[in-house]
Specification:
alpha/beta, Arc Repressor Mutant, subunit A, Rossmann fold, 10 helices
Length: 318
């Protein structure tokens, strides 16, 4: 009887061990199938393998090719709206801002969308970059150490017509007016979203390209002693160069193209490059007065820029 009892106990132990080994083998087999053809070490939480990829949290997982994929439509993928209109080539943009964190954010956001962003943090450095580099657009902060954004913009416009999108932490209308008068193409408060920044950046570069194409094809315009070359953005009066701001040049070119025909305020504002010019609605007379001074016009009997009562302005035709 004791021998029979011992045999019975041994049989029970064998059955338990067999069940344990079987369950382990079953788990190994299941995990082998899930991991695919990789050589796998089994762990309850993590699969490790020679060619497994690594997740950001440090865990490893099977290669993407061995995992089931759920097809997604293009519209369901993140950022698909922004990527829908990727530029055909890399667009070089210069960012001039002393906020290094903001610079990183803008650069990281625009890089996957086809923009190569160079960032500098001082106005003088930014001005030197514009003069030496071939940028399609400049994003310029107003509040900079040393040389502020307005001084940088003024320096840029002495040498280049590159589109400039200005950023400001201040929302005063006076700042917007000054920036646009000095030749900024658009203005964006620093409460902007990255989507709005991208939309405005695309808008100013598109306008600049259309304008450059149109002006390059346009021949020199002459009227009396006044001569403008739109492609080169130069102006001569009696053979001498005229020093004009970007806005003054656009206003003069608009009136010269329509010499002999009166233009109202809305027609003039619509013609000057389609920028955000509602802030100039009350100050356009000041710009006309400045142009008259540079053209040597007598305000009471102007030779070139005439006021047409109840209508607007007209460039006299010679």
């Amino acid at each position: 009887m004791p021998a029979a009892s011992g045999a019975s106990k041994a049989g029970k132990v064998f059955v338990i061990m067999f069940a344990f080994v079987t369950s382990v083998l079953a788990r190994v087999s299941w995990e082998w199938i899930e991991a695919g053809p990789c050589k796998v070490f089994v762990s309850p939480a993590v699969l490790k393998c020679k060619d497994l990829s690594t997740d950001p949290d440090g865990c490893t997982r099977a290669p993407e090719s061995t995992m089931p994929k759920t097809p997604r439509s293009a519209s369901s993928q993140p950022g698909s709206a922004a990527r829908a209109a990727l530029p055909a080539e890399v667009v070089r943009v210069l960012l001039i801002d002393d906020d290094t964190k903001l610079c990183r954010l803008i650069r990281d956001y625009l890089a996957p969308l086809g923009y190569a962003v160079d960032a500098v943090h001082h106005g003088a450095d930014g001005l030197a970059r514009v003069q030496s580099g071939s940028y399609r657009a400049v994003i310029l902060d107003v509040m900079l150490p040393g040389m502020d954004g307005f001084a940088v913009l003024k320096g840029i416009r002495q040498h280049s017509n590159v589109p400039v999108l200005m950023l400001t932490g201040r929302g005063e209308e006076a700042d917007r007016v000054m920036g646009l008068e000095l030749g900024a193409d658009d203005y964006l408060p620093k409460t902007f979203s990255t989507r709005e920044l991208l939309a405005r950046l695309r808008a100013v570069t598109r306008r600049a390209e259309r304008k450059a194409t149109s002006e390059a094809e346009e021949e020199t315009l002459s009227n009396g002693g006044l001569s403008l070359s739109p492609g080169a953005r130069t102006a001569l009066l009696e053979g001498e160069p005229l020093r004009l701001t970007a806005l003054e040049y656009d206003l003069l070119l608009c009136l010269l193209r329509s010499a002999g025909r009166a233009l109202n305020r809305e027609q003039i504002l619509d013609a000057v490059a389609g920028r955000n010019y509602e802030v100039f609605d009350r100050s356009i007379d000041v710009h006309i007065s400045s142009l008259r001074q540079k053209l040597g016009d007598n305000p009471r009997t102007p030779r070139y820029l005439q006021t047409i009562r109840s209508v607007g302005y007209m460039m006299a035709k010679f």
